[in-house]
Amino acid sequence: MPLDTAGLERLARTEDGLFKAIFSRMSEPERVAFGDEQIESLKNACGRLHWDKHPVDIRLSVPVLIARYYLVLLAGPERRNAIRRKDERARHHFWRWGNVVFAACCVLILLYVIVFAEVMLIRALFTDAAPE
User: Fold this and answer.
1) What angle do CA 5, 35, 7 make, to 5 degrees?
2) What is the DSSP string of 101-118?
3) Cα(39)–Cα(6) distance, rounded to whole angstroms?
4) pTM > 0.85: yes or no
5) Dihedral through CA 25, CA 28, CA 30, CA 33, nearest 10?
6) How far is residue 15's CA from residue 50's CA, in Å, rounded to a whole number?
7) Which residues contact 43 (CB under 8 A, 6 or more apart)?
8) Cα–Cα distance between 34 and 5 in angstroms, integer?
9) Would you tell me how many other CB atoms lie within 10 Å of the CB of residue 46?
10) 3-class DSSP state for residue 57?
11) At the N or C end, where does the chain have fewer CB atoms within 10 A?
12) Running DSSP on this structure, what letter comes out for residue 53?
């Protein structure tokens, strides 16, 4: 049974962001064609797609010049199967310019920290060992 106006209003008040995002990308005739059971089934499927908690979950929003960029670092045990990992590797290549620039910046920062620490350690050793 297609949705009536009350059904569409009820649908607009749903709390599931993924469900809202999927449904908002549909045309009006497609949305109206969904019945109550189909909508509930779609909501349940979207609800199961949420990420579990990760041991490492860092989310930052960084201002850079006139824009803001976000950075997400998630880490935890691998739960994806081999087919899914292969598919995601094919869709999200590492060797993109943004990834390479970011990795290079991380390496440069790490090298700077290591060199700075060594210089400070050498300075501390020679300062303490200098004769008076």
Assistant:
1) 25
2) HHHHHHHHHHHHHHHHHH
3) 14
4) no
5) 140
6) 13
7) 14, 16, 19
8) 12
9) 18
10) strand
11) C
12) P
Token pair 């569409």: residue: 8
Helix (H, G, I), strand (E, B) or coil at 35: coil
Give residues with Cβ within 8 angstroms of 90, minimum separation 6. Answer: none
pLDDT digits (tens, 9 = 90+) for 50-69: 667 889 999 999 898 899 99
**Cβ distance 46 to 18 under 8 Å?**
yes
**Contact, 61 vs 70, CB < 8 A?**
yes
Q: Any idea which residue has 């045990």 for tokens?
A: 77
Burial (0-12, 13-18, 19+ Cβ within 10 Å), 20: middle
**CA gap 69, 67 in Å, rounded:** 7
